[in-house]
Amino acid sequence: MEILTVTNLSKSFGKVKAVQNLSFSVPKGSIMGILGPNGSGKSTTLGILLNVTHGYQGSFSWNLNKENSNARQNIGALLETPNFYPYLTGAKNLEIVAEIKGASSSDIKTALEFTGMKEHAKRKYQNYSLGMKQRLAIASAMLGDPEVMILDEPTNGLDPEGIAEIRQMIIELGDKGKTILLASHLLDEVEKVCSHLIVLDKGEKLYEGPINALTTSDTIVEINADNPEKLKSLLEDFNGIKSIKKESGKFIVQLGDRSYLKDLSKHLNDQELTITHFSEVKKSLEEEFLNIIKRHKS
Ligand SMILES: Nc1ncnc2c1ncn2[C@@H]1O[C@H](COP(=O)(O)OP(=O)(O)OP(=O)(O)O)[C@@H](O)[C@H]1O
């Protein structure tokens, strides 16, 4: 079931087309990565979905469970510039947000514990490290136990340990059943955390789907033999090969289906040939991502 459906969304700032005819849907319970370089329209899209950016074309609809819920209560957000009072403590800042969202003090306690901010709750926000500020922002987004959380570049500027902590928290929030929209310019982040992704470039959608559909669509095998010419002709004879190329002395073979692997190795069992190398290569998301961008530009 879809928790969000976005249809033909467009938004311009003067001559800049920040979002162009964007449609996508978000399955309930998924962690949806919105991946794109800086300026690709991620924040603008999230701003529209949160009703803070206006003057757009197209539409979107949330399919939230809680009855009579408005977006403010049922969608927790961490945006790029958090709105906390520097001279107040973390706890006090959360109390203010809880008041606005109608969240309880037990929500505050849960959020502080989950984010590891309980021990820092009595310190002033202005004295927090960047990592603590981000954790407080996640705590704030959790208040009211929303069904959906929207996180815009939540690990920006953090050190590797801080990045790992925040990513782990996002995965745990997903395990709790929350639907999460995560904007990121980091492929590695999206790969580690998300179940689904859309790829944006210059406000346009280049890809939408589950992460694993990107990485497991075709099977790639590296093959070498003592008689490369013979190997080449045998490969060319085999039905089910989508493409053959030679890279660093090895043949890289793309199979339409993984079930062809067995037949291929039988087919290569030839008296004139000794196979010296035969291994399946796991395609990285990065490679697929680059292919998507390349296809878009050509
Ligand atoms: N308030 C604004 N006024 C004018 N231009 C804007 C405004 N907000 C965004 N833009 C422009 O719209 C385009 C998309 O920006 P957006 O912030 O949505 O991208 P992004 O993918 O979130 O990038 P970043 O990670 O850098 O925020 C950019 O060219 C940006 O300069």
UniProtKB/TrEMBL annotation:
The keyword Nucleotide-binding belongs to this UniProt entry's keyword annotation: yes
Segments passing through the bilayer: none
PROSITE patterns on file: ABC_TRANSPORTER_1, ABC_TRANSPORTER_2
Molecular function as annotated in GO: ATP binding; ATP hydrolysis activity
Annotated Gene3D superfamilies: P-loop containing nucleotide triphosphate hydrolases
InterPro entries associated with the record: AAA+_ATPase, ABC_transporter-like_ATP-bd, ABC_transporter-like_CS, DrrA1/2-like_C, P-loop_NTPase
Top-level taxonomic group: Bacteria
Keyword Nucleotide-binding: yes
UniProt entry keywords in alphabetical sequence: ATP-binding, Nucleotide-binding, Transport
Stretches of the chain forming a coiled coil according to its record: none
Domain spans labelled ABC transporter: 4-227
Family membership: Belongs to the ABC transporter superfamily.
Name under which the protein is recorded: ABC-2 type transport system ATP-binding protein
Organism: Aureibacter tunicatorum
